[in-house]
Every structure is written in C-alpha cells, then in structure tokens.
Amino acid sequence: MRGADSKLSGKRASLRRERSTARTAERAFLVGLDYRGRGQARTPRQAKGSLTAGAVAAKDAALASSAPRAPRVPEFSAEESLAELRTLAGSAGAEIAGEFLQRRDKPDPATLIGRGKLEEIAGAAASVSADLILFDHDLSPSQQRNIEKAVHTRVIDRTQLILDIFARHARTREGQLQVELAQLEYMLPRLAGRGIEMSQLGGGIGTRGPGETQLETDRRKIYRRIRHVKEQIENVRRIRAQQRQRRESVPVATVALVGYTNAGKSTLFNALTQAQVLASPNMFATLDPTIRAVPLPSKRTVLLSDTVGFIRSLPHTLVSAFRATLEEVQRATLVLQISDASSPLSAEQDAQVDVVLKELEVENKPRLRVMNKIDLLPPRQREALRDDATTVHISAAKGIGMTTLLDRIDQLLSEDPLSRVRLRVPQSEGKVLALLQARSRIYSRAYRDGVVELEVEAAESVVRAMREFAVSDFEPGEIRGEALAATIKRKRR
Q: What is the pTM of this model?
C-alpha cells in the first residue's frame, strides 16, 4: 500500500510539474479604482478628484492651454479604464484570473484602497491562484511595499506593466536602450527597503552596522548604468540628426503617423508603402520607427514615418526615453493623427493623443485627422460618414479611402509646391521626357515638327530643371526660347 501511495503521489507531483510547465502565462488579478463621490453633484473641484488614473494630467494640460470655457477633456470611466488594463495585460502575455473594481471618495495614502479591501483582494486573488496583482493606477514605492505585505503576492502598477510590454516588443538596439533607460529611472526610487540583505543602522550597543551598504551599491550601479545608456541614446540622436539633415537637404516632405495604440497606424503604413512592418492587435506592437517613401498623385514623393502609439497616462519616463524617436514627429511637415472610428472611446483616446502632442510642442503643426477602421462600423453609420477639410475616413485593412487620403496629403503639403507650366521639348531629349512622365502630371501632349508640346503640373524642383524648355505662351506652330532653338539646330547638324 505504501508503495502504491508513493507511486500515486509521484504521479500527482509529475502531473503538477507538467501543468506548471505547460502554463507559461502568468495569472493576473486586476484591480481598478474609481475615485468618485457617491450621490454627490460633480462640481469642478470634485470632477478633478473623480478622474481615473492619468486623466487628471490630461485635463490639467488641456485646461492650461485653453480658454476658461473650453470644452472639458473627455474622460475614461472606471470600467473603460479597467477594460484597457485587461487589454494591456493580454499584450504582456498574462492570463486574466479575476477582476476587482473599488469606488472611493479619495485614495488611501498608505495602501491606495484601504486595509479592509486589501484583505478582500488578497482572498480573492488566492482563491483563483493569481501569480500577481495588477493595479490600474500608479503606485508610490511605499504603497507598493505596503500592498505586497498585505496580499503576499507580487504587485505591479500600470506604469510597470507598460514598461514590461515595451521591453517585450523592442527589437532594435535603439528601442532596447530607450526601454532600459525608462526601466532604470522607474526602479531607482523603489530600491529602498527591498531585500533582507540591507544592513540597517541599529540604536543599541552592538547593533551599529555598516548602514544600507547594499542599497547604496545598487543605487551607484544604477546611476552608472543610466549615464552609460544616456550616452548611447545621445549617440543615436546624433546619428538620427545627421540622417535627418541629409534628408532635409533634398526637398522631400516628411509625414508622421501618430495616434492611440492599436489605432491601425502600422496597417496604414503597410497599405501606403507596401512595407512589411509588424501589424498586430496587441498594444505597442510598434516601438521602433520606420521611414519609407510614398509616391503622391502629383508624382511628388514624401517620407512616411511610423511611430510608437500613445496611451492614457503614458509614463513620463517613456516620453523622455523615446524623445529621440519622437523627434521624427517634431520635425515632420504634416502629422496624420490616426483614430479608431469603430471604438466607442475614440474621443477620449484623441484627447489623450492631443495631450502628448502638446507635450512634444507639435500641437500647432499641420494635422490631418484620419478615422480608420470604418469597415467595422454598421453599414448605415458608414454611409453617413462625410470627409471634410480636416478629416478623412478610411479602412487601411480593406484599402477603403486610400486615394482620397493621398489626395488630401498632396493638398496639405507646402514643401516643393506644385506649379502648372507649358513646355516644348525636342523628341530627341528622351531623358527629359522620361523625367516628366515619372515626376509630373501631364494634362496635354502634342507632337509638332520634332517637338513635344506639353502642359504639365510638377513640383518646383522639377520645374526648375525644365526651365530651358518653358514657354510663356502656347500657340500652335510657335517655338520660343533660344535654348530650344539651339538644341534643334544642334540635332539637325
């Protein structure tokens, strides 16, 4: 019997090991918070205290830059914010084990949600075998330590979760450096009190130890690493500036794609450039900037830049770390703000994008609003959509509205402006005629006496190259221009 029991226990242990090995995803228990007075009128002061995580900063920034009676920045509700945290957790590879939403008048300074609720959360997380607890709020170092002591489970706040997603998706060396810098700056204030190996100074005889030597050592190592990473990022910025300077020496405009994460920027980028950039439904699938050339209907060429997506309460450390990447937005001629037309939170997401653009000081740059994913709308709602001077409706996945979008970009670009000219080019000038065919719109073409008479619309740089073939009037049979006459005379010889 004992042998059978031991064999059975061995099989059970083996089965548990197989299950733990097969289950690679961590089980996460989500905690959402809503600081809103119950049954009270929402005065302006109470409205500020009732915002979910990150909306306070968005509202303050919007109010500071607007008139006193400017419209209020749309806010995420607690349920919508928790749903976004659920999506973030899935992008990080977590399996949702349970959720908890608490409403309070104000946050608890020590534990954010109060001791009683912590005990309730601890029991709920233990009952579903949660590996970690995710808070939809930024936690101070002391709050995080206090919560972990109460729930006996690893605790992660919203910022740390976003940093983990960035670390998963960074592919290039530049992206990895930027994520590492943000992680180090986040970790630095959270070192105190971590680990039993830290030697605290005592207050009695024989207890005067060497102090927090391990803490000081860790801080020194982190400071040293931060300096090294910043130097490497500065080198990246210098190289990127040199590349940008070479691009700007040629009259080619740059168009930057910006928008909320998972709005479809990479899908649109692939549709316009025929590139193979990763387009994923996961949040922050794109971290590394990509630039490709796009031909416009006017035969001009623009450089299209795909950038990292924004999100509500984007950690400031990430904005600072990714400044080298976001400089592409600052130097762009035109900004395409991509929005998810099928999302019920489109207005709230756009408001958060506006806040980040203001922080980058590009809120006054020419901007075109691109409402994406209209193929997901009901047919009646899709038919009621109308484009205007500042908004275009498209579906990047289905290729709907691409021609209209390119035409609108063409109209908004001021670099290398278009002009309509009349030219007379000898038929023997094959290179000139090929250039006009490739780089201009040809409205009329006629062949007379070995000369091609054209009326074209082309960029200023092309028109300058065709200056010797330009004519002031376009009368049949009349050839003007000494350069053209000399060219024909030379060919006849």
A: 0.69
